[in-house]
Fold this sequence. Notes:
Layout: E1 8-13, H1 16-24, E2 33-36, E3 44-47, H2 49-52, H3 62-68, E4 73-75, H4 79-96, E5 100-104, E6 107-111, H5 116-119, H6 122-137, E7 141-146, H7 149-156, E8 164-166, H8 172-176, H9 189-195, H10 203-208, H11 211-218, H12 222-229, E9 245-256, H13 259-279, E10 282-293, E11 298-309, H14 312-329, E12 335-347, H15 358-374
Parallel strand pairs: 2-4, 7-8
Antiparallel strand pairs: 1-6, 1-7, 2-3, 5-6, 9-12, 10-11, 10-12
Amino acid sequence: MASSARSILHVDMDAFYASVEQRDNPALRNKPLVVGGSTNRGVVAAASYEARKFGIRSAMPMRDAYRRCPDLLRVQPRMAHYQAVSKQIFKVFRRFTPLVEGLSLDEAFLDVTASMALFGAPVEIAKAIKLKILEETRLTASVGVAQNKLVAKIASDLDKPDGLTVILPADYGTKLDPLSISVIPGIGRETLKRLSGTAISTVRDLRLADDRVLEPVFGRYTQKTRARAAGIDERSVVPSRTEKSISAEETYDTDLAAREEMERELLRLTERTATRLRKAGLAANTVHIKIRQSDFKTYTRQRRVRPPANGTDQIFAIACDLLGVWLGRNPDAKIRLLGVGGSDLAPAAQPDLFTAGETETVVDKTVDEIRDRFGKDVLTRARTLDQH
Length: 388
């Protein structure tokens, strides 16, 4: 198989946001800590390993985290700082290979197949990367080493924190087979519920299960799922330094109940997203919104845009329309979180001075320039102001 000739690493920083905060502030070390929202309405963005002992995890509502650990410490996220640390880490990766596929600020796939002649065996490269990250950032990483992305990612999670796990095809029977099926990408809570009536609980069970058992659950993805359980994955590491999507979202202390306030918040979020798109020189081929109700049910809605958009008014109009359609089906909904984003990004084209969008382009450019010079809060749209 083509994958047999490859050597892939999956590097995953350990509790990244929380570890950065504990590194920077000695008073937080060895204590249960979360990075996240400022009130009980927020959610946990990251939890230290001390907090995880209480069952606290990312995306957990903050009130549930405090219920599990009343002595929990909390700090506000510092995204710009985490991004700066992430750049240090990715510079380390690229010293060993140009084939780096970032998945987030704190994890990436590395194809080191062509690097072995210079740096040695994959496990030695993994050790060197871990050491360099520790020396330069004082943070630890866990690394999985395998012949494909799927198995490398599973391996990196088996010995955290500060782990290094190698899983080669000869090890699949002893290291992959006994694992819970939840390690297979795409098998989440709902799929586990649907499999609960079967005898399938381990990767081996899934790999050997009869099609008659799997097809009602996985449908046309049955063979793909079975291949994953067998450790088969032919995907290449695709280096990309461009953002795949740009978005902004917010969780509210009080549920949004009136459409007027929902649209006001939607406009604020649109301004943040559109500004980031323009600063990056990008435009979105798809506009999407994210809605989370007070009962935590979460919905996303999206629409293609032609031509690609990065204008505030254009994105807001689409976001408002998407929200309106959703509200038509959920008329009494109360919203605890809203988000607006652009995806399927492309370089922004130069505006045509003879098109109807000329005025909007000039206004957005002028607003961006004023905010860059005097601060982002110096200029705002009247519609985003509270009614009073």
